[in-house]
Structure formats: structure tokens, C-alpha cells
């Protein structure tokens, strides 16, 4: 059973999410929060597997609340939902550690499928899509100068990270780097652990911010 906490300042939206989630046999809503402060408090109390987090909420917005929730000892997977399709919010949500991002106009089946994906420990957005979102953000805002020499990864781990940023699967990475799939899995798990990252999507963000990949590489 996947325990879900819904955080949204609109009661009607929370009711709708609850109705969609509770009709599924493998998931249930364990609590509802009307603002970011409640979201953090109820996450600490109920320890849900997945937290549906709105971005625009009173007292504490969803981006700050996401960072606080993910700093807890047993953090949930966070699925950010909003009515606004803004790449800068997508980027900040992913950078804060969210595992996915959805607009509120998705169908019920898309929402429940997304909950299952993030509950299983996977990132909702494909790495290639994440890369394009980051490129758009960089083009408009820029980031501090990258420091690739300070990266704690080995040369081979950086090679694997570059391939992750290209959106390649483990089998594709294995083919391009002439490695076994089990070896690639070991490298992926090792680099995520070294960098203290939750999933491949966060790895893409890291790769851009530290100069391991550069804007435009997806189109080469």
C-alpha cells in the first residue's frame, strides 16, 4: 500500500486528489495539508511514501517545503503539482529533490501512474527532458561558474554521469562504454551515493551545475 499525503491550499483540489487516489487498490491518502508548514509537520507525523506538493501555498511555498521535507530522517518521494507550466519552477523543484513534476490538469490515471513511478524510486521525468528544461533555465538565468575539477567522481563515473545526462538507459550506457550492464548499475549506484543524490534526474541537474555536461550537448 502506497501512503500518500496531499498538500494543496484548495480544499476542492485536495478532495479531488483524495477521490482519485483512494479508489485505487494499492494506494491511499493518509493526510491532507493546506499549506507548506502543515505539509512538513504531517510528513513528519505520518511518514507517507509519496507527497503531492502544490507550489503556490500560504505560509510556506511548496519549493521551500520540499527542501524541508527531504531533509527529514525518512523523507518521502515528492511529486510537485501546479497549474503553472513554468520551467524555472520545474528546475527549482527538481533541484530541491523532487522526483517529478505534473500539471494539475492531468488525467486521474496519469496522476496515479505517477504516484506509482515515484513510489518505486524512479524519476518521473526522463533525463533528456530534464536536460532541456535545465538548458532553458540556463539560457535565461545562468548559473555560477562550474567546477568540474572539484567533482568527487572518478573519470569512469563521470563518463557514466554524462551518459545519464544524455538520457541513456543502463543498457545504452553499457553499449557505448563497452561495459556490462551490471557494471553500469554499480557505477550508477556508486555515483548517486557519492553525490548524495536521490535519482537520475537529480544526477542530470548535478551534471549541468558542475560542468560535467554543457548546454547544447543534447543537440550534438
From TrEMBL:
Residues 146-211 form the HTH luxR-type domain. PANTHER family: TRANSCRIPTIONAL REGULATORY PROTEIN NARL-RELATED, TWO-COMPONENT RESPONSE REGULATOR. Keywords: DNA-binding, Phosphoprotein, Transcription, Transcription regulation. Residues 3-119 form the Response regulatory domain. This is Uncharacterized transcriptional regulatory protein yxjL. GO terms for molecular function: DNA binding. The lineage of its organism: Bacteria, Bacillati, Actinomycetota, Actinomycetes, Micrococcales. The gene is yxjL. One of its GO terms (biological process) is regulation of DNA-templated transcription. The modification 4-aspartylphosphate is found at residue 54. Gene3D superfamilies: 3.40.50.2300. The keyword Metal-binding does not apply. InterPro entries: CheY-like_superfamily, NreC/VraR/RcsB-like_REC, Sig_transdc_resp-reg_C-effctor, Sig_transdc_resp-reg_receiver, Tscrpt_reg_LuxR_C, WalR-like.
Amino acid at each position: 500500500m502506497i501512503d500518500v499525503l496531499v498538500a494543496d491550499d484548495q480544499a476542492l483540489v485536495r478532495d479531488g486528489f483524495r477521490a482519485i487516489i483512494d479508489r485505487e487498490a494499492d494506494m491511499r491518502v493518509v493526510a491532507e495539508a493546506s499549506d507548506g508548514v502543515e505539509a512538513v509537520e504531517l510528513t513528519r507525523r505520518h511518514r507517507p511514501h509519496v507527497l503531492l506538493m502544490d507550489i503556490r501555498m500560504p505560509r510556506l511555498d511548496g519549493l521551500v517545503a520540499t527542501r524541508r521535507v527531504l531533509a527529514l530522517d525518512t523523507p518521502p518521494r515528492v511529486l510537485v503539482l501546479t497549474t503553472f507550466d513554468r520551467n524555472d519552477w520545474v528546475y527549482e523543484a527538481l533541484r530541491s529533490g523532487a522526483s517529478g513534476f505534473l500539471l494539475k490538469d492531468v488525467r486521474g490515471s496519469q496522476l496515479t501512474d505517477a504516484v506509482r513511478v515515484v513510489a518505486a524510486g524512479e524519476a518521473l521525468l526522463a533525463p533528456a527532458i530534464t536536460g532541456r528544461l535545465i538548458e532553458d533555465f540556463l539560457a535565461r538565468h545562468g548559473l555560477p561558474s562550474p567546477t568540474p575539477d572539484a567533482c568527487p567522481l572518478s573519470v569512469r563515473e563521470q563518463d557514466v554521469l554524462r551518459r545519464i545526462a544524455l538520457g541513456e538507459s543502463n543498457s545504452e550506457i553499457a553499449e557505448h562504454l563497452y561495459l556490462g550492464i551490471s557494471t553500469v548499475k554499480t557505477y550508477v549506484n556508486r555515483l548517486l551515493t557519492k553525490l548524495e543524490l536521490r535519482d537520475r534526474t537529480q544526477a542530470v541537474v548535478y551534471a549541468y551545475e558542475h560542468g560535467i555536461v554543457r548546454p547544447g550537448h543534447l543537440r550534438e
